[in-house]
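Running this now, will post back.
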Amino acid sequence: MNRSELIAVLAERAEVTRKDADAVLAAFAETVGEIVAKGDEKVTIPGFLTFERTHRAARTARNPQTGEPLQIPAGFSVKVSAGSKLKDAAKGK
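Update: finished.
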């Protein structure tokens, strides 16, 4: 399912226009992005998803073509965890 298909389904189920559904989805994505960028808290939708910022330590890797070691600096990543209701849906329950 792509974004436009998701917006169509959301608009139908919530009985709003596609424009309104698109605006809500965009606002949700922007808000989650801002909170994760701050890194001081996580976003939890109970039973569905949890978004949180994680720290990745610096590490040494290898260039696959030359075998030369590379230093990869420390950085941040995003961890998305499925909630219980989403896990049950994936199991077909």
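Residues 6 and 32 are 18 Å apart (CA to CA). More later if anyone needs it.
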